[in-house]
Amino acid sequence: MDEIFGTKIIMKGEWQMKGSTEAWGRQSRKSICTATCTLMVLWAFLAGCQGTLPTAREQGKKISTAKLIPLNESGEKTGQYRTEDLTIDYRYTLAGGKFEISGILQFTNSMQLMMAAINAFSLTLVVGDRQGTVLEQQGLTTANNHQPTEPLSFTKTLTIPPNAASMAFSYTGMALGSGSEKGRASFWDVPVH
Questions:
Q1: Residue 87, phi then psi, degrees to nearest 5
Q2: What is the CATH number of domain 53-189?
Q3: Distance CA 134, CA 136 (A)
Q4: Residue 51 has pLDDT above 90, yes or no
Q5: What is the pLDDT of residues 19-32, one digit of tens each?
Q6: Biggest alpha carbon–alpha carbon distance for the chain
C-alpha cells in the first residue's frame, strides 16, 4: 500500500482517505442531499416564474378541446377543473383585458394516500384565442415541501391579450411516495398539443 497526498492507495483500485471514511461518507451524502434539494427548489422557482409568452415549443400549438375553458366577459364565472391528481375550484372575472382569477386546489384522495409530500409543484394558466391557439402562459402558484392533504389557494390579477377567448390549467409536480410507494414520482397535466 502506498500513500500519495494523504490518500492511501489500496490494491484493486480502491482508495481510502486518511482518518474516518465513515465521516467522509456522511459528508458526501449530506452534500448530495443539499444539491438535490437546491435543484428541486430552483426547478419550482423557475416553473413559477414562467414568462407570459409561450415558449417556442408551444407557439402555434392548440389547447386540448377537452381541457379548453371558454372565457366570458359578463360578470363573475365559477367552475371546477378535475384530473386524476387534483381538483381546482376557481372563479374569475374578465373586463377589458383585466383578468382576475382565484381558486382552491385540492389533491385527490389517491394522491393524498400515495404521496407523503409534494416536493415541488407549479400551476400555470394557459391563455388561448377562440380556436384554442396558445397566446400566453402565466404562473398562478407554486409549492415546495407541501403536504398533499392541505389545499393550495391562489389569487392573481393579470392583463391578458385582447383576443383572449379561452383558458386552461397546466401543472407539473414532483412528489415523495409514502408507505410501500417510497421514492419520487413526477406528475403533470400539460393540455397543449
A1: -130, 135
A2: 2.60.40
A3: 6
A4: no
A5: 444 444 445 444 44
A6: 82
